[in-house]
Amino acid sequence: MFVVKIGGSRGINLDYVLEDLARQTEPVVLVHGASDELNRISEQLGKPPRMVTSPSGYTSRYTDRETLDIFAMVYCGKLNTRIVEKLQQFGVNAVGLSGVDGRLLEGRRKPSIRIVEEGKTKVLHDDFTGKVEKANAGLLRLLLDAGYLPVISPLAISHEREAINVDGDRAAAVIANALGADRLIILSNTPGFLKDVNDESSLVRELSREGIAQAIETYAQGRMKKKLLGAQEALDEGVKEVVLADGRTPGCITAALGGQGTVIKATKEG
Question: pLDDT by residue (tens digit) across 170-191?
Fold first, then answer.
């Protein structure tokens, strides 16, 4: 079996992704993002997104309680339902869940986060973000064994039973590990990991687990840092292969399973 993570950035063709997903014969779990839609609706509601950067250079969305409610509305409501509807039209008996349902995704809420703004380090205490630590594999297997395709939006439940915003790529990695999946496919609006974000011909076609840290330090920018971090975590826990692939083209999942994109393996070849 394998796990697919669809990014939420502008440019990804959801119809192409879901149509190709419906053709697959292996069991699969789908995790989705919604960043572009979330930005648009947040602006409409008068709550524009606030992006913050950690001292180590990772960018994330500041999530107070009001933003968390918008998350639930967009991720668990609009987009999750739309994906399930489209898969049903393609003949797939999909079921939509958030990570809060059945404690599907569990993690630790960060008591505070350190950010850098205008060159100064600050501490935020009212942020509802966290790190996924565990997936409810029993619930997922129950659905898969019954013939359902789980479609998961990456909110999680904290140890204190609060909903928290978690990174979707890392959530997909935790799910893949919990299920013993062979592969994790991460789809975005680029052909894969690029050395130069402005040059799609700079695609890195193969990367070893050992090369991820250098890739993050040298070339990765923005969200790609967390995608590589999610790949690293998946490989460290037993997933054999992670593919960063293009979600803009027809047959994108089949192409990724065939090695198109950036293929990252647990050990160096040879």
Answer: 999 999 999 999 999 999 999 9
Other residues' Cβ atoms within 10 Å of the Cβ of residue 55: 9
Map residue 189 onto helix, strand or coil. coil
d(CA 53, CA 115): 5
Q: Measuring CA to CA, how many Å separate 59 from each of 24, 134, 202?
A: 34, 23, 23
How much is the mean pLDDT over the chain? 92
In the predicted structure, residue 270 carries a pLDDT above the cut 70: no
For residue range 93-106, list pLDDT tens digits in order: 999 999 999 999 99
Residue 268 pLDDT greater than 80, yes or no: no
Count of helices and strands (H, E) across the chain: 9, 16
CA pair distance 200, 228, nearest whole angstrom: 17
Closest CA to 51 of 117, 122, 131, 123: 117
Q: What tens digit of pLDDT does each residue of 211-257 get?
A: 998 998 888 887 888 899 889 989 998 899 999 999 999 999 999 99
The pLDDT score that the predictor gives to residue 190 is: 94
DSSP-assigned letters across all residues of 113-173: EEEEETTEEEEESS--BEEEEEE-HHHHHHHHHTT-EEEEE-EEEETTS-EEE--HHHHHH
Alpha helix ranges (H) inside the chain = 14-21, 35-44, 65-71, 80-89, 137-145, 168-179, 212-218, 223-236, 252-257
Which DSSP category does 192 fall into? S
Structure confidence at residue 85 (pLDDT): 98
How far is Cα 3 from Cα 182, in angstroms, rounded to an integer?
9
What domains appear along the chain, each with residue ranges and CATH number?
2-47+62-106+131-265 (3.40.1160.10)
